[in-house]
């Protein structure tokens, strides 16, 4: 094979193929050979760009994170609502309902019990996602739809509990246990004056986890 004139395209093809395989077969059951076969590339062509499957997964996850961050920014600009509370609820529901994010989340389920992955997720929640939510909470304080003196802290608490504590895969929970924790989180946020976890979002999250096979059916 001659020198690759379009290395960036090759990288994108590898990532696209890997994402498709990770979703269809699962990360653990996907091999470098599977990626090679799908693309018709040699092992050397894969390893020229990536050190292995773990690095491919890291980049796939970063792509998802970048996509979600851009989606959140667009939703903040474009979502119409009567107040900030309703705007946050609409934004959270739109993200939870997004098919691309949902598909990538199926890949994340295979890695969620990794301590490094969990720590990275917590940092992302606090440093990135919570920052956007806290800005919206501040808008809600100004328009009277949110009642808290701690928008930053409430945003961090919400994002960490929503993405880590209520995740059934991480804690090996069944559907009922997961829904109970989502309802508990809803009540906790209400007590904090941040009533942003809607019934619609709870139902959507339960649907998402169920479709990903995230519930422990033995409990």
TrEMBL record:
Pfam families: TetR_N
Entries under SUPFAM superfamilies matching the protein: Homeodomain-like
InterPro entries referenced in this protein's UniProt entry, alphabetically: DNA-bd_HTH_TetR-type_CS, Homeodomain-like_sf, HTH-type_Tx_Regulator, HTH_TetR
Limits of the HTH tetR-type domain: 8-68
DNA-binding region ranges: 31-50
GO molecular function: DNA binding
The entry's keywords: DNA-binding
The protein's name: TetR family transcriptional regulator
